[in-house]
Amino acid sequence: MRLGAAQLIHDVIKSDVLDGGCDAIFCTGLLDVAQLRAVLPARHRAIPIILYMHENQLVYPSGPRVKKADVERDGHLAATNISSLLAADHVVFNSSFNRTSCLDAMPEFLSLSRTSYPVTEWQERIASVSSVCWPPVEPIPDTVLRNTSSSDYQDMDLVGWPHRFEHDKGPDELLGLIENRAVPETLRFSLFGQRYKDIPPELEVIRARHAGRLACDRWFEDRLEYLQELGRCGWVLSTARHEFFGIAVVEAMLCGCLPWLPERLSYPELLPEHARGVSPMNPPENRIALMTDIRRHLEPALAPNSIARLDQLLQTPPELKAKVP
Q: Which of 22, 58, 166, 302 is 20 to 30 A from residue 110's alpha carbon, by CA?
């Protein structure tokens, strides 16, 4: 975020790609758009810039090693997001939660400065040029869908946890659920998330103390193999404290897993209202009907539909874009 724009322009100028003509520059929230505008050659500064916000640093959680005595968070990254949002011609957030949390967090963040900012005007400016488009999720292969359509294939006592092995995915809450007496002991868990050198201690406790309840503890490199194993689960569980969309959870629901999801973050918008609050302790009356409703609700996230919506947003004049449903 600090030097990406400078590096990008260095590479672009060397390749002369902009001189060949382009309709727009499409970039993510990990790029400083204001800096990009500044370092663009003058002849290219009128090219529209579309900013896709896949997260926002105003509410992004600090890592476990950050001590309040040292520094609570790097405010420069959040400030960069704000300047990028103001400098972009079009802004597309990957979820309503992402947009709302970003705009709502601006007043408190900017109040920490010694300078007074026109916060309301900035919020209105960003809102007027922003829309929401769920990120494209690749369709589930037919072979997996055929398997999960069979009641014999799915195990309703098997719960998939598809998160990275990191602190912000709530491994402490996962441990608490496994050890909660209100959670049936018949439930088994599959840990699918990507793992790293440093593993949260709660996951090590789960492995040591509850190995008998782990049906799978593996990171799959092959997507088809992963989806087939994921499709065996009757439920997908999230304990995340940080999620701006939730592709892994959406993939699981498209595979036929029922949602065991908290009422926070982006999850409420990923579900039809009657699918919220279900769990192995509160199962739906008609599992197949609910699964069908969820898949229908998630159709905008399927790659062909998501890309078509993004095309629509980028072809809509800025003054009308905020009105696009």
A: 166
Domains of the chain, CATH where assigned = 4-135+304-321 (3.40.50.2000), 142-301 (3.40.50.2000)
pLDDT reported for residue 325: 42
Q: How far is 202 from 172, CA to CA, in rounded Å?
A: 6
Q: How confident is the model at residue 60 (pLDDT cuts 50, 70, 90)?
A: confident
Side chain identity, residue 74: D
Query: Do 125 and 319 meet the contact criterion of CB atoms below 8 Å apart?
Result: no
Distant-in-sequence, close-in-space partners of 202: CB < 8 Å, separation ≥ 6: 171, 172, 174, 175
What whole-number distance in Å separates Cα of residue 4 and Cα of residue 29?
A: 11
Instruction: Please report which confidence band the pLDDT of residue 66 belongs to, taking 50, 70 and 90 as the band edges.
Output: very low
Q: State if pTM tops 0.70.
A: yes
Return d(Cα 4, Cα 106) in angstroms, integer.
Answer: 23
